[in-house]
Amino acid sequence: MLDTNLEILNQLLPSLKKNGIQNFIEGERTAAISGDTFDVHSPVDSEFITKVALSGKEDVDQAANVAQKAFESWKKMPHQERRNILYAIAAKIEEHAENIAVLESYDTGQPIRFMKKAAIRGAANFRYFADKVIDAPNGLSTPDTHHINYTIRQPIGPIGVITPWNTPFMLSTWKIAPALASGCTVVHKPAEFSPITADYLVKLAHEAGLPKGVWNVIHGFGETAGKSLTEHEAIKAVAFIGETTTGSLIMKQGATTLKRVHLELGGQNPIIVFDDANLDRALDTAVFMKYSLNGERCTSSSRLLLQKKVYDEFVKKLSQRVKNIKVGNPLDPVTEVGPMIHPTHQEKVLRYGAIGEEDGATLVVGGGTPDQLKKGCYVNPTLFIDGAQNMRIAQEEVFGPFLTVIPFETEEEAITIANSVRYGLTAYIWTKDVGRAHRVAQEVEAGMVWVNSQNVRHLPAPFGGVKYSGIGRDGGEYSFDFYMETKNISVALGDHLIPQLGKNQ
Ligand code: NAD
């Protein structure tokens, strides 16, 4: 199976190397106006993959103006027609799922075992939001004595979509599908570390019949191309996924043009395991939610809060499981953890090994890099126990295969520890006590809580964080609230009283 994936990669790489990746504006591949490019290397083996257009303000200007022009016709396209184009994009993604998975895996280091599903989930996002196209403009009827009031939803305008490097394909579809379903047009700026599948995806969408100018992609760095996009007058809203500090910058940058912003940011999420839980299933969840997707996952459970009665036994089993995790080439289906996205991120994750020891936690598994993998950005899956809430490894987002275990005695203590971080994206609660499950779920500061479960995404349910983890919600109706404006229309039913100023003079 590794051979099959390498074969696919070897078929796709030569044209990527030869042609590079350009911007995609008004249905055409377009070099950056400056002619500048930057190189992308694979985290798997540090090999050069391709040259990518390095866009500046003038490229963003061109793409945003195109998106503004295309908005006039896209928003008026009959709903059935728009819906059918989104269905066709979903079908194209499914047809190309294998190529997408291999490219994503080689570009990001994410194990192929998860990337196959990510491509299929991308198609599911398009299909789900296509199903909703016809109802999206629906609003409320709020009758009054002398007026009938009703609301409709209308697309807000061109959207700037800015995405990160972790699972970039799936996350792009998560933003772009509802934007297009709403009738908005898009300028997408993918992360500079992982631009490849964004380019693949926009081309598939045009093969599926998307009109030119509706979806444009500009490549480049956040501080330049990304910043210009958030400042552009024609862009009405910014859908952003990335770090908390970048989210804060985006709010500032967009303030002058009164941008609507939706921010999906970082996390330092707890999994709380009480002593009455199904401990085998809780163990599966703790390992999966931290070490899947290389731990480069916003919803990962980075702090395991363990009740003292079961602490020693649970830690023993957990250590064994983490030791067993298979690190290797992400294109190999047996691999469970692949390389970190980039040498700078590899260094960051490794640094937290030293920080954990300085903090006084106990390293029981991992730290450092695997002996057998000298090329590429690999790190060993790492487990610290005897952590405490004030430690940096329990406060900061490491964003790697790195778990910190913290003991607790009582329910109140577990809640205090869980809430003692600036983030609030997800929480996972394990207990058989129904009352306690509800109590803790209500007290814990997070946008999403799973009880006796790993993260299982349900597309109509709201997705998003509180505190420094974000502003706004995605999913179902929540997505349409962001990409559309609600307009109230009030119609008089008869000759109601209108004050007659100036009549008697
Ligand atoms: P990042 O913030 O460094 O970059 C994200 C994107 O923002 C990139 O495309 C980058 O080029 C762009 N950017 C950077 N500076 C910018 C600026 N000043 N103006 C406009 N755009 C700018 O994030 P990252 O390192 O690529 O991704 C990892 C982070 O994303 C983690 O913190 C993770 O938790 C978060 N994330 C959150 C969610 C969620 O749903 N909450 C999902 C996935 C990832």
UniProtKB/TrEMBL annotation:
Record's keyword annotation contains Signal: no
Pfam family, one: Aldedh
Entry keyword set: NAD, Oxidoreductase
Species of provenance: Aquimarina hainanensis
Domain Aldehyde dehydrogenase, chain residue ranges per copy: 36-489
Protein name: 5-carboxymethyl-2-hydroxymuconate semialdehyde dehydrogenase
Protein family membership: Belongs to the aldehyde dehydrogenase family.
